[in-house]
């Protein structure tokens, strides 16, 4: 006996958009939904690849941004570069700092700002992460 294929949620949504009079937008909505779904799948796979070295893709991205910015950056600028809310940056940096992969230092000229810096341990783990993802 042949198993029925799982339903495609994007195709189902497309049908609902058509049925509810959104036929002008259905193609675009399906395209955007597909792209977002691919992003979810790839992010989950990246997290699985990085899990054995106790890293998530989001934390990996922080390390990469710092690496390509001479190993340090103010937290506010880091959030803008990653395009995430400042609360998320704080959370990510907290976790990386707890792992010894980032350290916070005062900004050299702006007392209101804190800089995230990548010590040797962070750079070493980043190289391992790049190899795993490749």
Structural class: mainly alpha
Quick one: how many beta strands? 3
Helicity range of the residues?
A: 55-70%
Cross-sheet strand order for the largest sheet? 1-3-2
Uncertain segments: none
Taking the alpha carbons of the first and last residues, their distance comes to 40 Å
Give the overall pLDDT as a whole number.
91
* DSSP summary: helix tally: 6
Strand content: 5-15%
* Silhouette: elongated
SSE pattern, N- to C-terminal: HHHEHHEEH
What composes the largest sheet?
3 strands, antiparallel
Please characterize this protein's 3D structure.
This protein is mostly helical and 134 residues long. Helices cover 61% and strands 8% of the residues. It contains six helices and three strands; from the N terminus they run αααβααββα. A three-stranded antiparallel β-sheet has the order 1-3-2. Strand 2 and strand 3 (114-117) form a beta hairpin. The mean pLDDT is 91.
Secondary structure layout plus pairing:
Blueprint lengths: L8 H11 L6 H25 L6 H11 L4 E3 H8 L3 H13 L4 E4 L7 E4 L2 H14 L1
Antiparallel strand pairs: 1-3, 2-3
Helix pairs in contact: 1-2, 3-6, 4-5
Compact summary:
By secondary structure, the protein is mainly alpha-helical. It has helices at residues 9-19, 26-50, 57-67, 75-82, 86-98, 120-133; strands at residues 72-74, 103-106, 114-117. It is elongated.
